[in-house]
Design brief:
The protein is an alpha/beta fold and about 240 residues long. The chain contains eight helices and ten strands. The mean pLDDT is about 95. The structure holds 2-amino-2-deoxy-6-O-phosphono-alpha-D-glucopyranose.
């Protein structure tokens, strides 16, 4: 595990460059994408690089980590909507190659074939991750088995509280989600994780220094052969 302590602007640009390097070196790159506020700067840099002609997404396939159960893709807090708004609508990607788990309709059958779909696409070349204040990655809450594949899960009170800032009212936050599992994530060939701000300090400590335990889902990343952590001083403050 490599840890880089940087300022926000450098985190955003260096992580975007990691993506660009992978995309430009593969014929059919497969990207693992995340939502949340943390990757927003990275996506803005990718949009810029695409407009400047430094990278093309024409041959790229993407798989997103997770989705809320009960939200249509057109809901402004759904992760499909987030990805369209913050990345896909602004780059030269073929939208039919962008995969986001479904939260409505026959979402269970889709969820069950998701890991197979990733495998058939060649596996994820590079996966970006954020982190929850309780140490969750994607929606793998504390207690999720390390060998989990894509599954449905209940959200913890902490996550519902954290994510309520993006909804009109906490009562509107879905209580369930579908998510790639910890094993699905560990299967990615390369992982880059971003965490900034004091609210993430405890999770970042568990990620880097803590014991590898299912109570701190992100700690499994200590076992990944190619994982780089991008943090700012505040998120890193308990590790020093
Ligand atoms: C949600 C997402 C996670 C994300 C986390 C942190 O729970 N499912 O993938 O990492 O929020 O979000 P933020 O980056 O906004 O702090």
């Amino acid at each position: 595990m490599i840890v880089k302590v940087l300022k926000q602007a450098d985190i955003d640009s260096q992580m975007a460059e990691e993506f660009i390097k992978v995309i430009n070196s593969k014929k059919h790159p497969v990207l693992g994408l995340a939502t949340g506020t943390s990757p927003l700067g990275v996506y803005a840099n990718l949009v810029k690089a695409n407009k400047e002609g430094r990278v093309s997404f024409k041959n790229v396939t993407t798989f997103n980590l997770d989705e809320y159960v009960g939200l249509e893709g057109t809901h402004n807090q759904s992760y499909r909507y987030f990805m369209n708004e913050n990345l896909f609508n602004h780059i030269d990607i073929d939208k039919s190659k962008t995969n986001v788990l479904l939260g409505v309709g026959d979402y269970v059958s889709f969820m069950k074939k998701y890991d197979k779909m990733i495998e058939e696409a060649g596996g994820i070349d590079i996966q970006i991750l954020g982190i929850g204040s309780d140490g969750h990655i994607a929606f793998n809450e504390p207690g999720t088995p390390f060998d989990s594949l894509t599954h449905e899960t209940a959200l913890t009170e902490q996550t519902i509280k954290d994510n309520s800032r993006l909804f009109n009212d906490i009562s509107e936050v879905p209580t369930r989600a579908v998510t790639m599992g910890l094993k699905s994530i560990m299967n990615a060939r390369k992982i880059i994780l971003v965490a900034t701000g004091k609210n993430k300090a405890k999770a970042v400590y568990g990620l880097i220094k803590g014991p590898i335990t299912e109570e701190m889902p992100c700690s499994i990343l200590q076992k990944h052969p190619d994982c780089t952590i991008y943090v700012d001083e505040e998120a890193y403050s308990l590790v020093k």
